[in-house]
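BUG-188 | component: ligand-complex export | severity: low

The export step for fe (ii) ion jobs runs without errors, but we want the raw record kept on the ticket for reference. Input record follows.
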Amino acid sequence: MIKERSTFVTNELVELLRQLDHDTFLHGMRVGELSYKFSRYLDLTLRQTNQLHFIGYVHDIGKLKIPNSIVTKRGPLTDFEWNLMKNHTIYGHDLLKNLSYHNDILNAVRYHHENIDGTGYEGLYSNEIDFNSKIIRIVDSFDALTHDRSYRKKCSIEISLKKIQKLSGTVYDQDLIKEFTKFICKLY
Ligand SMILES: [Fe+2]
């Protein structure tokens, strides 16, 4: 019987991560590290902490299936390109499913762009979104805001936190934003 993979980084996975463009790869590493620290702060179980660490690394792995010219495009994407880009959550889910990863991981890779008010990629509402996805949603945005993107400059920690807080209860989970705010203030 093949043992279901939880958070093992296999050779196949390393090979896939190596093919990601440099910025996406580094972003994943940072989201993994910050998710790990936030999970520790929240005093989550070791299993969930390890899962979130891992999910951070791989959450955008589906971008491998998006044309590189779109992933690395300097400047805003057209509507057509955005619609293609949005498929990265499903592509990532399918890639990791083929490598037999656990459902908790597959769900977070698929639903890390869902919003509490149902306006995310697949229109899931608050209680339909799993906890891991809600965490990655916040950490992913925070990392994106605090680092330069091809089409905009990074914001300070303070401004980034304010931008995220503004969307508490619509995009992000309210309780988690309260905790994330305390966590970031303690961290910096
Ligand atoms: Fe993503």
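Assignee comment: Attached the raw record above. The first helix runs from residue 11 to 19.
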